[in-house]
Amino acid sequence: MAAPKELDPTVSLAALLGKKVRKHRERLGWTQREVGNRLNYSHNRIAQVELGTDPPTWDMCVALDAALGAGGELTELWEHMVRERAREEFPDWVQKYVLLEAKATKIYRYSPQIVPGLLQTEAYARAALRKGLPRASQEEIEEKVAARMSRQQLLGKTPPPLLWAVLDEAVIRRPVGGPHTMHDQLARIVDAAQAPDVTVQVMPFDRGEYAIMGGSLTLLSFADGPDVAYLEGIGPGILVEQPDQVTEHSLTYDLAQVQALPPDDSLALIKTAMEECYACTRHDPT
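The line above is the sequence of Helix-turn-helix transcriptional regulator; the predicted structure tokens follow.
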């Protein structure tokens, strides 16, 4: 039998993660095939992880950490890996926001057109990015999808940040990715809203005009620092740190919260939109 390929953990965090997986696997005396059989993955997939050529997803990393008795070492390293990937993939202004978002104790988000990234499904994110970046390669799209999905891990922190999202009704009505994708996306929002730290409101069309119409707004609060606001439209986002301006943006958000449907009524409207998507799927086999 050929000797296992030597790994260079200094090449990347993915390579270091692979080396750690191999170390724990060999400590238990298991082959790659045995690990794969236990976790329902092929031995080739385990080999790719160990070589650092195709890092594990979050779910796979959690399963590996538990099966190999790594005590959180693998999942912690995975989080470092995806944060590093995000820093490499995004421009400076996005990187700064992502770092602040990860430290926030409260995240208040208004979105007029698209589901916030923290609540997106992978299929929805892929469809939105594909349209938004028409000149990007499929590999580039997949990298951005992976980075966006990795940001969602902050909702699993202990304790998690409070997430309060106000969505224009257009967000739940526009069938991004088609009816199947949109149905699953709406289901994801409903499921997320069951958590005590997540609240979703919908601003229905019949409310007419309201204070915050336009581009998206995010307000971040911290345990040990001043609040910041983040404005996003078609071009680069704008991070607002001046206290008086942040206060003004907070006021417009508060007014939108008051005018939007209450959380229970909002979820009822989202479920109605889900049913309409489901009806469409019966006539759309894609």
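Note on the example: The mean pLDDT is 89. The longest helix spans residues 263-281.
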